[in-house]
Design goal:
Number of helices: 10
Strand order of the largest sheet: 16-15-14-17-18-20-19
CATH class of the largest domain: Alpha Beta
Strand content: 25-35%
Number of strands: 20
Helix content: 25-40%
Distance between the termini: 66 Å
Largest sheet: 7 strands, mixed
Shape: globular
Radius of gyration: 23 Å
Number of domains: 3
Structural class: alpha/beta
CATH topology of the largest domain: Rossmann fold
Oligomer: single chain
Length: 403
């Protein structure tokens, strides 16, 4: 046994999961421990014969260990730096890091980058860290130092946005704060479009980077169309639709603060004017519940985007979530023009592709309209999914043609 780390020994047969490189060790798989680890402590996982299966952070709950290495390792500052270098090099190969037209992207996507419990988003010089486990939260100082080495002068600040993402029952509490440096600007570029990002008080890390490629596809379909962007937040889809030459764009969100941010981004991109021919406002925003807004808008829109927050975060909410997706899509089917295009999404991790498509199909059947699938959508490449951890694929999307 390695005296430096507590050792977790698995029951016979339970070694198959880590041998297949799945990063989660469930509490029921554990036979014994060399000592009781503290929450967030690094542990070594072994089979009953003493073979090292990997290293990970100990957590309290059904997932007892999240593995960040599948072999014995000396987990020091060099180890964490190498992890971030690998993540950065992938983003470089994807054409994101160093791209003059896109200076915002996800640098670290948890298990997809071999760093369970950690999210890092890069916003034009500011790295926003979000930790979901105590183990990763305790590494903040080492992560800041590693980021400084990876980015050099390109890094201006590191902000911790973990207050709402840490385990609720944990004794370790996070406070949102700047960990290092000073932000020079909260304006970012995505495919040449300008956005203001509020990572301090905004949703998630401040901007939904995972919809970058879907926004590009919306742009392809938006020219000369009337577009409705529901659950709009900061107006990402709206900006792309306007840039494509949409005839009119409406942005809807129940949060007044989100709508105000959306309006600022519309102005930032110079789309706050009127249409050339009839004086119709190019863009109008509404601080209103999407379900209420859709009622009475019969056949007004050529293109509708449904991008709601997660309807289910736990398995016990799955049924209600499916019903919610069905109801939402049914309203859109009722209101969209013949020949319209519907972009519909689910970011609920517990709702898989088939379940989501089934909910949308049920709505299509009830609407009585002919519906065809044009595209299946998912998260972009800077949110990579480990082939050994399919649970990392959370974003599902369909582009539909409605007759």
């Amino acid at each position: 046994m390695n005296a430096a780390y507590p050792v977790i020994i698995l029951n016979s047969g339970k070694e198959q999961s880590p041998l297949r490189f799945h990063p989660w060790i469930f509490s029921g798989a554990i036979k014994s421990k060399s000592r009781e680890p503290a929450e967030g402590e690094i542990v070594e996982v072994q089979d009953i014969k003493g073979l090292c299966l990997g290293m990970g952070h100990y957590t309290i709950g059904s997932i007892a260990v999240r593995l960040f290495s599948f072999k014995k390792a000396e987990v020091d500052s060099k180890f964490w730096k190498n992890k971030l270098v690998r993540a950065y090099n992938l983003r470089k190969k994807l054409g994101l890091a160093g791209n003059p037209l896109t200076n915002t992207y996800r640098l670290v996507y948890a298990e997809g980058d071999g760093l369970p419990g950690l999210i890092i988003d890069f916003f034009n010089g500011t790295a926003v860290i979000q930790t979901h486990t105590v183990g990763m939260h305790l590494l903040k100082e080492e992560l800041v130092n590693a980021l400084k080495e990876v980015y050099g002068e390109e890094l201006k600040a590191v902000y911790d946005k973990s207050e709402d993402t840490m385990p609720k029952m944990s004794a370790v509490k996070a406070v949102n704060c700047c960990l290092w440096g000073q932000t020079e600007s909260n304006e970012v570029l995505e495919n040449g479009h300008r956005f203001l990002v509020d990572w301090e008080t905004g949703q998630k890390t401040g901007f939904f980077i995972d919809q970058r490629e879907s926004r590009e596809l919306v742009k392809k379909y938006s020219r000369d169309r009337t577009v409705l962007n529901t659950f709009c937040y900061s107006g990402g889809f709206s900006i792309y639709a306007l840039a494509a030459g949409a005839r009119e764009v409406h942005s809807v969100d129940s949060s007044k603060k989100a709508v105000e941010l959306c309006d600022k981004n519309v102005i930032l991109n110079n789309f706050n004017g009127t249409g050339v021919s009839d004086g119709t406002l190019l863009h109008t925003s509404f601080a209103q519940d999407t379900f209420d807004f859709l009622e009475g808008r019969s056949k007004y829109y050529d293109l509708i985007i449904l991008d709601p927050p997660a309807f289910a975060k736990h398995q016990n909410a799955k049924h209600n979530a499916v019903q919610g997706y069905k109801r939402l899509n049914l309203e859109a089917f009722k209101q969209i023009k013949p020949g319209g295009i519907l972009f519909t999404f689910s970011c609920s991790q517990v709702i898989d592709k088939s379940l989501f498509q089934g909910a949308v199909m049920a709505a299509a059947i009830e609407s009585g309209r002919s519906v065809r699938i044009l595209h299946h959508l998912s998260q972009p490449a800077d949110h990579p999914v480990s082939i050994f951890h399919p649970e990392g694929e959370y974003l599902k999307g369909l582009v539909l043609y409605i007759e």
